[in-house]
Amino acid sequence: MRDGPLVDDAILPETHASAPISRLVAEVAAQCPGERITLGEMAEAFGDRAFGLLILLLCLPGLLPGMASVFGTPMLILGVQMGLGFHMPKLPRFIARQSLRRTDLLRLSSGSSKWMNRIERWVRPRPGPFTSPAADRVVGWLTAYAALMLILPGPGTNGPPAFGTIVMALGVVENDSKVVGLGMALTLIGNVFATVVLGALLWFGMEALGYVF
């Protein structure tokens, strides 16, 4: 799906000095002028890089309280398309029209956790087994699973899947096999954690209803 890293090799040393998420947000802002930036504009501007970039930007709100579920549906659609082997996103019109304010986009780039900042310093283009087309499909299905966890309400169930998916998407955009592999493991762990919590809540809810009735 990707022929190379996000940025041109000639400018890689200079641009890689900044944190990848902040640099990617700046690139989106430069490519998509306007006070609001739609998902359709981003998909069109970034072509075959759009999957990783859109998933990354949609998942960043998962690290901020109260914002995760809003972006779960577009993330679910992107994950399924990536899992099915699409090379570029094909967003339904109602999804393509969804937009982010430029100011919110910049706020998201500064909302990363200290663990995310540590991982960003480790990211660089490293092709390998986790940057293959088969791995892209696995990334897609893990993203779809994480999106479901973001959509379903539960205490503390947004952060772990969101964090893992951000790491995974960052590796996809930067063509870094090691970071993609790490992200896959973190996303799987986060998804399992969220599933167990939601399952426990459902079980306690059913038990409570049985007790009442």
TrEMBL record:
<dbReference type="InterPro" id="IPR010331">
    <property type="entry name" value="ExoD"/>
</dbReference>
<protein>
    <submittedName>
        <fullName>Exopolysaccharide biosynthesis protein</fullName>
    </submittedName>
</protein>
<feature type="transmembrane region" description="Helical">
    <location>
        <begin position="50"/>
        <end position="80"/>
    </location>
</feature>
<keyword id="KW-1133">Transmembrane helix</keyword>
<keyword id="KW-0812">Transmembrane</keyword>
<feature type="transmembrane region" description="Helical">
    <location>
        <begin position="179"/>
        <end position="204"/>
    </location>
</feature>
<keyword id="KW-0472">Membrane</keyword>
<dbReference type="Pfam" id="PF06055">
    <property type="entry name" value="ExoD"/>
</dbReference>
